[in-house]
Amino acid sequence: MEKPRILIIEDDDLQAEIYEDALSGYELSRARTGREALAHLSKFPPHLIILDHILDDGDLGLDYLPELKEALPHVPVVVISGAMDVHEQIEALQGPRRAHYCLSKPVDLDDLRRTIETALRECGEAEIVRSFESLERSRRADIQDLLSRSTDRLSRQNEILRQVKDVTARPNISALARRFNVARRTIIRDLHELIRRGQLPPEIYPRWATEGEDDASGPSV
Q1: Cα(93)–Cα(70) distance, integer angstroms
Q2: Closest to 82 (Cα-Cα) out of 59, 105, 63
Q3: CATH for 5-123, among 1.10.510.10, 3.40.50.620, 3.40.50.2300, 3.20.20.150?
Q4: Fewer Cβ neighbours under 10 Å: the N or C end of the chain?
Q5: Radius of gyration of the chain (CA)
Q6: Per DSSP, what are the bridge partners of residue 121?
Q7: Domain made up of 148-210: CATH architecture
């Protein structure tokens, strides 16, 4: 099985060596600056990025976070710094181009390994799959709700048709609204649909008669 690839963006050689020893079970690559990291992405597309905040040549890792996430939007990023205050950490973890985790220096290596394992398991491609599954569930729920409402409407219209088709007087909109626990405008719309489908004659409820009939007496369906 292919080893997960981790890009380490770290300017300090000693710290980089510590990461390499602690993460020997992964395929590792290193960049010293944000620009070097961006150039590295096409050659070494990582499954996870470790991003140090203070880099070589005065670079700040968080300045490159938007570009890294733009290039690899679903790759989890673990930001590591001993210089970030709480506000900066919160900001790094918010928004569409956010980091997934922030760890403080000196880094607890066991904590780092657990974080990476969790990120690789729960983020990245797994996160994409969950997002699609959630979207599909939402769409199915919307479709079921639409079908249920459509079925309710057809059932109500069939019952209205049974009650008014042989009656010569104008339908009692308020009584029908109370009978089906819907708004008066819903009953008026039902009548118009029945007329449009040719199931009721137009004279039973002329369109001009809808004026002033929109006062709700129940929920619209």
Answers
A1: 15
A2: 105
A3: 3.40.50.2300
A4: N
A5: 31
A6: none
A7: Orthogonal Bundle (1.10)
Query: Tens of pLDDT along 145-166?
Result: 676 777 888 888 888 888 887 7
Residue 202: asked if its preceding bond is cis (omega within 30°), the reply is no
Q: Looking at the whole model, is its pTM more than 0.85? A: no
**CA 44 – CA 81 distance, rounded (Å):** 24
CB 194 within 8 A of CB 200: yes
Residue type, 23: L
Q: What per-residue string of b and e applies to 15-37 under the rule 16 or more CB within 10 Å gives b?
A: bbebbeeebeebebebbbbbebb
Domain ranges of the chain: 5-123, 148-210
**Lowest mean pLDDT: which of 80-94, 166-180, 205-219?**
205-219
Q: Report the distance separating Cα 24 and Cα 19, nearest Å.
A: 8
